[in-house]
Amino acid sequence: MAHVIAFANQKGGVAKTTSTVNLGAALREHGLRVLAVDMDPQGNLTMSQGIDTEGLEKSMYDVLVHRTPIEDVIYEREFDVAASTIDLAGAEMALAQMIGRERALQRALDPVREHYDYILIDTPPSLGLLTINALTASEGVIVPVQCEYLSLRGLLQLEKTLEMIRENLNPEVRIQGILATLFDARTSHGKESIEVLRDNFGPLVFDTVVRKTIKFAEAPVIGASVLKYDPKGRGAESYRALAREVLNGRSS
Question: Whose C-alpha in 96, 129, 177, 221 is 20 to 30 A from the C-alpha of 228?
Answer without folding.
Answer: 177
